């Protein structure tokens, strides 16, 4: 399967083949299937974030016992792992620098 260049911005959830404004936080080379999987992980992250928002307004539910926060963190880590695997040296260097894929960041 042919790999194409994609521009990724995790904050906005954008995945695009067209570079414009600041949508190029990460640049990857990926197949259509890989992009679909990445998009699903980013959508799962968004959904978990929405659930966490509503949970935050329920004072009797402690943060550390919230599955939606765990889901968000898990999908975020998996997203960064995919970006690391599909990204160029600059992407790998940046992800290494923030330490999200190591136990040291906790």
Automatic annotation (TrEMBL):
The keyword Hydrolase applies. Keywords: Hydrolase. This is Hydrolase. It comes from Virgibacillus indicus. GO terms for molecular function: hydrolase activity. It comes from the Bacteria. The keyword Hydrolase applies.
């Amino acid at each position: 399967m042919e790999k194409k260049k994609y521009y990724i911005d995790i904050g906005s959830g954008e995945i695009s083949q067209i570079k414009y404004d600041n949508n190029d936080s990460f640049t990857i080379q990926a197949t259509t299937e890989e992009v679909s999987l990445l998009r699903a992980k980013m959508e799962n992250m968004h959904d978990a974030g929405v659930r966490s928002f509503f949970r935050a307004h329920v004072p009797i539910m402690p943060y550390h016992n919230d599955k939606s926060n765990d889901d968000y963190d898990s999908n975020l880590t998996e997203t960064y792992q995919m970006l690391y695997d599909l990204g160029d040296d600059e992407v790998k260097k940046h992800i290494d620098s923030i330490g999200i894929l190591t136990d040291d960041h906790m």
